[in-house]
Design goal:
Layout: E1 4-13, E2 16-26, E3 31-35, H1 42-50, E4 57-62, E5 65-66, E6 77-80, H2 92-96, H3 98-101, H4 109-122, H5 138-151, E7 156-160, H6 168-184, E8 188-193, H7 196-202, E9 205-210, E10 213-218, H8 220-225, H9 230-235, E11 240-250, E12 253-258, E13 261-267, E14 275-280, E15 285-301, E16 306-312, E17 315-321, E18 328-333, E19 337-339
Parallel strand pairs: 3-8, 3-9, 6-7, 7-8, 13-19
Antiparallel strand pairs: 1-2, 1-4, 4-5, 9-10, 11-12, 11-14, 12-13, 14-19, 15-16, 15-18, 16-17
Helix pairs in contact: 4-5
The structure holds adenosine-5'-triphosphate (ATP) and magnesium ion.
Magnesium ion binds next to α1.
Length: about 350
């Protein structure tokens, strides 16, 4: 069990600023998921933590000690790569015990055999010891890669999109397994993905990255209900973001004017007086009565509800209803926040 801290990490590749002042801490036994679009710097953060990349500035600490001067193999940090990187000519057992045959984590043959049995049981592959990687399914290869990373009992485990090669059903199954395994071993983990559902389901906390910066780190529910920036609001779930003018402050709330209507909004990441965005989720809209009128443009049936696209003057709106929508809808906004642009 170990606590990981990343402090003001910066990394550039020539003119590209890949990581631009990222800081976060992962508590002992906690799973932090880094979520963000392609190219936002997720892999680079992991590679800096593992020692595969040298940052220009910042620090990486494990249990309060900087590991920046240590080479990768002395950092006690495990890495599960997106493409598994299994040794094709070695059996499952030999892949799993690779780190236990050389170097600091060397174990006797009998101890290695016990460790393999235990790890394969953990990842649900008992009896697969003698298979070669080409005799395994994609999901099974992924499990072997996980078992191999866990074999040396790293203080911190880094996982770079380990589930992205799998189909949707297997991804869901394996992410449940992965969470169970990490929790059972009380592993401190940083898991990278661009799949928001995976992030919310797997992470104790989730950090949303955008263009080299970490925009917000929070528990999944807070991230969905209380995004601090327009980017986080839109990247995670469906969001309505309307440009709004603040007309009056009222404690932690403000009155704003949108589409000629005054709306009370909690102030979140924006001060009264600003130009701001009024943010509300599709399900924070109540149909029937209300000051707004929406012209429906289209609707998608999603099984348990309709997702409706509409316009309120020049503003676009997404909302949800359990009924097929009428062409014109009256509504009010039940809950809203003000975000700084
Ligand atoms: N070795 C490198 N040389 C030059 N540029 C690089 C290198 N590695 C990464 N980059 C650039 O740094 C930025 C961040 O890349 P990174 O691989 O960290 O993104 P990512 O968030 O992991 O993306 P993805 O979801 O596609 O894996 C990108 O603009 C990328 O092109
Ligand atoms: Mg990547």
């Amino acid at each position: 069990m170990a606590r990981l801290e990343v402090c003001d990490l910066k990394k550039r590749f020539g003119p590209v600023v890949a990581v631009d002042g990222v800081s976060f801490a992962v508590e002992s036994g906690e799973i932090l998921v880094l979520l963000g679009p392609s190219g936002c710097g997720k892999t680079t953060v992991l590679r800096c933590i593992a020692g595969l990349e040298r940052p220009e500035a910042g620090d990486v600490r494990v249990d309060g000690q900087s590991v920046l001067r240590l080479p990768p193999e002395r950092r006690d940090i495990g890495f599960v790569f997106q493409n598994y990187a299994l040794f094709p000519h070695l059996s499952v057992a030999a892949n799993v015990t690779y780190g236990l045959r050389h170097g600091r984590h060397r174990l006797s043959r009998a101890a290695r055999r016990r460790r393999v049995a235990e790890l394969l049981e953990l990842v649900g592959l008992s009896g697969y010891e003698r298979r070669k990687p080409h005799e395994l399914s994609e999901g099974q290869k992924q499990r072997v890669a996980l078992a191999r990373a866990l074999a040396v009992e790293p203080k911190v485990l880094l996982l770079d999109e380990p589930l992205s090669a799998l189909d949707a059903a297997l991804r869901r199954e394996l992410r449940r397994e992965l969470r169970r395994i990490l929790k059972e071993r009380k592993t401190t983990a940083v898991h990278v993905t661009h799949d928001q559902e995976e992030a919310l389901a797997l992470g104790d906390r989730v950090g949303v990255m955008n263009a080299g910066k970490l925009e917000q780190v929070d528990v999944p529910q807070a991230l969905y209900e209380r995004p601090q920036t327009p980017f986080v609001a839109q990247f995670l779930g469906r969001a309505n973001l309307w440009p709004a003018q603040v007309v009056e402050e009222e404690g932690s709330a403000a009155w704003v004017e949108v589409a000629g209507v005054r709306v009370r909004a909690e102030v979140l990441g924006a001060s009264a007086g600003d130009e701001a965005f009024l943010f509300f989720r599709p399900d924070w809209v109540e149909l029937g009565e209300g000051p707004f009128e929406a012209a429906v443009e289209g609707a998608e049936y999603l099984g348990d509800r309709w997702e409706v696209r509409a316009r309120v003057g020049a503003l676009s709106l997404v909302l949800r209803t359990s009924q097929p929508p009428q062409p014109s809808l009256r509504f009010h906004i039940t809950r809203a926040f003000l975000l700084r642009p």
